[in-house]
Design goal:
Blueprint lengths: L2 H16 L12 E7 L4 E10 L2 E10 L2 H14 L4 H15 L26 H15 L6 E3 L7
Parallel strand pairs: 1-4
Antiparallel strand pairs: 1-2, 2-3
Helix pairs in contact: 1-2, 2-4, 3-4
The structure holds zinc ion.
């Protein structure tokens, strides 16, 4: 990774950790899910208010490491006001970039590309994907169900 990319990554993570976007709760969420990443201790809950297939509003809450909080914060910004299909496509590209299946230069990630540096730290990939994981479960209408990054670890 170039030092410019590294600097941007650090800066974006710290900025979102300091001032997470869309943090808190919705009055009347239509969909919600929680996610845990036992390997790091991250826990996030995502609440959505859907209008048809549009994510009208979104909030997240919980506690996690800087990468988890920054990635979840950026996820909420990326999907708010967007169609479910757009959110799912973003999630697929984001995941593929972090797991090394897709080149970050080619992937249509928008601002999320500044988190592509996480792919250099395999132990942090689950942290970056947790918020998205919870979002996908919320959209799948598993209302309030807890999900985990550890397969088979669900209660
Ligand atoms: Zn973490």
């Amino acid at each position: 990774m170039s030092s410019a990319e590294n600097d941007l990554y650090q800066e974006v993570v710290l900025e979102h950790k300091r001032a997470p976007r869309n943090f808190g709760h919705l009055d009347a969420p239509t969909h919600q899910a929680q996610g845990t990443n036992p390997s790091c201790g991250d826990r996030v809950a995502v609440e959505l208010r859907m209008d048809g297939s549009t994510v009208q509003d979104i909030r997240f809450s919980g506690q996690g490491c800087a990468i988890c909080m920054a990635s979840t914060s950026m996820m909420t910004e990326a999907v708010k006001g967007r169609d479910v299909d757009v959110a799912k496509t973003l999630q697929q590209h984001f995941r593929a970039v972090l797991t090394g299946e897709e080149d970050p230069e080619q992937a249509p990630l928008g601002k999320l590309v500044s988190l592509a540096g996480v792919r250099q730290y395999p132990s942090r990939i689950k942290c970056a994907l947790l918020g998205w994981h919870a979002l996908m479960h919320a959209l799948a209408d598993n209302d309030g169900q807890a999900v985990s990054t550890e397969e088979g670890a669900q209660p």
